[in-house]
Amino acid sequence: MKDEVLLGLQDVCFSYHTGQRALADVNLAIYPGERIAVLGPNGAGKSTLFLLMNGVYRPTRGSIFYKGMEIHRKNESILRRSVGIIFQEADSQIIAPCVREEISFGPMNLKLSPAEVEERVKQAVNVMNLGGFEDRPPHYLSGGEKKRVGIADIIAMEPEIFLFDEPMASLDPFHAKLVEALLVRLNGQGKTLIVSTHDVDFAYRWAERILVFQNGRLTANGTPPEIFSRDALCGSACLECPILLQIERILEKNNLLKEKGRSPRTVKELEQLLGR
Ligand code: ADP
Is the CB of 238 under 6 A from ligand 1? Predict the structure, then answer.
C-alpha cells in the first residue's frame, strides 16, 4: 500500500522576481515508486514546479515536505540530493570539458570514493549507450547525444525521485525508445518518476497518474483514462486524445470490443480486448 507521502506540496505559490506568478495554491502528494506525467501548455508552470521540487527555488508561500520533514533554508540540500532534474535543454546542465568528467561531477560532489565514482560513471555510460563518448567534449555533441549525457549525469547520482523535463524531445526514435525503456527500468527499481511531456500517447501508456497544469494551477490529478475522458478539461488544456483511446472509442461505438470499459494502454492490450 502506497500510503507514506514521499514529496508533498502544501498551498505552494511561486512568483519570479519580475512579479510573474508561475504557480498558485498547489497541493500535491507524491508517493514512493509512482510514475507521474505532468501535462499542460507552455507557460503552465511545469518547469517551475520541478525547480521547486528539487530545491533550486523556494516557495513564495506555502511549504514543501520531504518524507514528512518540512523543507527550509537549512535542510534544502536534502531535496537537491534526493530529487534529480533532467533538463529539457542539456546545455543548461552540462559544464565539464569531457563526458567522463561531466558524469563524475555529481557523484564526486556526493563525496563518494574514487572507485565508487568510477563505477557509477561506468554504469551511467552503459545505461545511456555512451560507450566511446567518454573523452569527447560534451559541447561538440549533437542535441540528442548531449541529452543522453544529461540523463547519465543524474543516473550517476542515484536520486530517489527523477524529474524529466520533456525527456524524448530532440531524440531519434531509437534513443527515444531507449529512454522510455529506462523510465520503465528505473521505476522497476523502485524509483519515483515525474515526467513533463507534450506526448499524450506516451503519457497514456506509461503513467499511473497524470497532473494537468494550467496558468500555474493544478487543474486535474487522476489516472490517464480519468483525465482523457474529461473532454472540457482536455479542450481547455489543449490536450489531444491519445490515439489508443480514440481507436477504443470507435471500436466501442461499433460494438467491436469483447469487453467494455477496460481501456487498453498498449497495442497488445488492444489486441487482447479485440479477442485476437
Ligand atoms: P512551463 O514549463 O509549463 O512551460 P514555466 O514554469 O517555464 O512553464 O513558466 C511559468 C510562468 O513563469 C510563465 O508565465 C513564464 O513566462 C514564467 N517564467 C518562467 N521562467 C521565468 C523567469 N526566469 N523569470 C520570469 N518569469 C518566468
Answer: no
Q: How far apart are CA 139 and CA 101, in angstroms?
A: 13
pLDDT, one tens digit per residue, over 84-93 is: 999 988 887 8
260: left (phi over 0), alpha (psi -120 to 50) or beta: beta
Pocket lining: 263 vs ligand 1, CB cutoff 6 Å = no
Closest atom of ligand 1 relative to the 49 alpha carbon: 6
pLDDT of 199 above 80? yes
How far does the centroid of ligand 1 lie from the alpha carbon of residue 45, in Å? 6
The residues, ordered by sequence, that sit 6+ positions from 25 with a Cβ below 8 Å of its Cβ are: 11, 12, 13, 62, 217
Overall pTM > 0.85: yes
Q: What is the pLDDT of residues 93-125, one digit of tens each?
A: 888 999 999 999 999 998 999 999 999 999 999
Residues 150-187: tens digit of each pLDDT: 999 999 999 999 999 999 887 889 989 988 999 998 99
Q: From the CB of residue 213, how many other CB atoms can be counted at a distance below 10 Å?
A: 24
Pocket test for ligand 1, best of 16, 17, 89, 165 (most atoms within 8 A of CB): 16
Name the 3-class secondary structure at 201: helix
Whether 46 lines ligand 1, by a CB cut-off of 6 Å, is: yes
Q: Among 14, 26, 48, 165, which residue has the most ligand 1 atoms within 8 Å of its CB, making it the best to mutate?
A: 48
Residue 5, phi then psi, degrees to nearest 5: -70, 130
